[in-house]
From TrEMBL:
Segments for region (Disordered): 180-200
Protein name from the UniProt record: Resolvase/invertase-type recombinase catalytic domain-containing protein
Composition bias, Basic residues: 180-196
InterPro entries in the record: Resolvase-like_N_sf
Gene Ontology molecular function: DNA binding; DNA strand exchange activity
Gene3D superfamilies membership: Resolvase, N-terminal catalytic domain
Recorded superkingdom: Bacteria
Length: 252
């Protein structure tokens, strides 16, 4: 029986009929390995794209840039610059890709490289939706993007920090992790802080509840009498059913 190979997270051509990103984008680590060992004067432009103004306002691009700076810590770069773009990945007009064009023109004079965190930062399918992230760009879309670059900066290479053909689900997972590093959060459902701790409230109102019960007041009347006291201590007034439960727990 043939042993099943572990899933590598790389899309194979049959699963990506629209077009393979690796046919158009380089993997930056492989590209750097091809450079001469003494090459220390190459220039990089990092292309950081977010889809909308809300993401830009929340500074989500910082996760991409943190990933880039971390990857480049051990590299000797003569010059690098970050170019931020706000717009959809499927919009392939000169106006919508002004920052990508500027990035390409910046490195063109030095035979440098334009780098993005992953291939989705460069390009997305026209019909991409967050619920259908496996819908990959077509060959026509890839070629149109490269044509825009070739018009303004001939010969400039585009590269990605992650493998160009990395599965979209893996890409999303990596972006989430870098976003968590940026904000210092670990992910998962946040724990809610209890604004109404029961024990301190009980310790304050319990003597009064016992006094009111001895005077013959009902649970509803006691709840009304406790409202100003709870407001003074910034507690939520207990419900009559809660007062009744406390009475059964401590009948004295």
């Amino acid at each position: 029986m043939k042993k099943k190979q572990p899933y590598s997270g790389i899309l194979k051509p049959p699963l990506s009929p629209q077009g393979l990103a690796s046919n158009y984008f380089h993997h930056l680590p492989d590209l750097l390995d091809e450079l001469p060992r003494n090459a220390s004067d190459f220039t990089l432009a990092f292309y950081s794209r977010v889809s909308g103004r809300t993401q830009h306002k929340r500074r989500t691009y910082e996760g991409q840039e943190m990933q880039f700076h971390t990857a480049m810590e051990k590299q000797t770069i003569s010059e690098s610059r970050v170019f931020r773009e706000v717009g959809s990945g499927w919009d392939l007009t000169v106006e919508a890709r002004s920052q990508l064009i500027k990035a390409a023109m910046f490195v063109a004079e030095h035979e440098g490289i334009v780098v993005a965190a992953n291939s989705q930062r460069f390009l997305r399918n026209e019909f991409y939706t967050p619920s259908e992230i496996t819908r990959l760009p077509t060959v026509e879309e890839y070629e149109k993007l490269l044509q825009i670059i070739e018009t303004f900066a001939p010969g400039v290479r585009l590269a990605t920090l992650e493998a160009p053909d990395l599965c979209p689900y893996k890409v999303r997972s990596i972006e989430i992790k870098w976003g968590q590093k940026r904000t210092g959060r670990k992910g998962g459902r946040p724990r809610k802080k209890r604004s109404n701790p029961t024990k301190p409230r009980y310790e304050v109102v319990a003597p009064m509840i016992k006094k009111y019960f001895r005077l013959g007041y009902s649970c509803r009347k006691i709840a009304e009498l406790l409202e100003p006291i709870c407001e003074e201590y910034d507690f939520r007034p207990p419900h009559p059913s809660t007062i009744n439960r406390w009475k059964r727990r401590d009948p004295t």
